[in-house]
Amino acid sequence: GAVVSQHPSRVICKSGTSVKIECRSLDFQATTMFWYRQFPKKSLMLMATSNEGSKATYEQGVEKDKFLINHASLTLSTLTVTSAHPEDSSFYICSAKTGESNQPQHFGDGTRLSIL
Amino acid sequence: AQSVAQPEDQVNVAEGNPLTVKCTYSVSGNPYLFWYVQYPNRGLQFLLKYITGDNLVKGSYGFEAEFNKSQTSFHLKKPSALVSDSALYFCAVRAGTTYSGAGSYQLTFGKGTKLSVIP
């Protein structure tokens, strides 16, 4: 149980393109979803947290107009990287959890984004 | 503010030997502690958690961790390492608060420890 599906797994595109990444909880209702960015050989950096039906809460230094997050249902959140540039190239990982306090976050398999 | 320290960037262990990956934490109130494993180009897989109860927590793939409140530690252990255990391991913590709101569920991760099990 507790499967999180993230698509696409890899994206290569030209500078200036907008890229949408989907994160779905397949067998549970995700009250809260998180988006992380991971640099090579580094830990996870939390970008934003979203509750279903609410606006995302962005971490300091993360541009909300650059990284658009939508959490329209209890099973789907999307991250759109708008007008992507080479410095946006990274590994993006989503996670989801239920509303129960003692349950862990469950992670997707990540999206490798490469902007040429 | 909460924080996690994983003092070792890399741990090498021979196959069949016991392994330990260290983690210490700092958090206000009671800690909720987690271990995750990450294989190359993959997301994180949940291994185990400590919320309350027995200090020794058993998780997936034969891993266990011991919560030590006085030392604020939550070291990951396995009695006999396998080559397939080679991966990146993350310790994470959050405060065990009961109020609602997304911020209360945010995890703070350690920098990760690369475990290499040598055949």
Structural features, described:
The complex is a heterodimer of chains A (116) and B (119). The mean pLDDT of chain A is 92. With 116 residues, chain A is an all-beta fold. Chain A contains no helices and eleven strands. The model of chain B has no long low-confidence stretch (mean pLDDT 92). Helices cover 0% and strands 50% of the residues of chain B. Chain B has no helices and twelve strands. With 119 residues, chain B is mainly β. At the A-B interface, strand 5, strand 9 and strand 10 of A face strand 5 and strand 6 of B.
Short description:
Chain A is mostly beta strands and 116 residues long. Chain A has no helices and eleven strands.
Estimated radius of gyration of chain A: 13 Å
Proportion of residues in extended strands of chain B? over 45%
Q: Roughly how many Å is the radius of gyration of chain B?
A: 14 Å
Catalogue the unreliable spans of chain B: none
Number of helices of chain A: 0
SSE class of chain A = mainly beta
Q: Main sheet of chain A, how many strands, which sense, barrel? A: 7 strands, mixed
Number of helices of chain B: 0
Query: The biggest beta sheet of chain B, please?
Result: 6 strands, mixed
> What oligomeric assembly is this protein in?
heterodimer
- Low-confidence runs of chain A (pLDDT<50, min 5 residues)? none
Helix content of chain A: under 10%
By helix and strand content of chain B, what is the structural category? Answer: mainly beta
Task: Report mean pLDDT of chain A, rounded to a whole number.
Answer: 92
Task: Tell me, briefly, the overall form of chain A.
Answer: globular
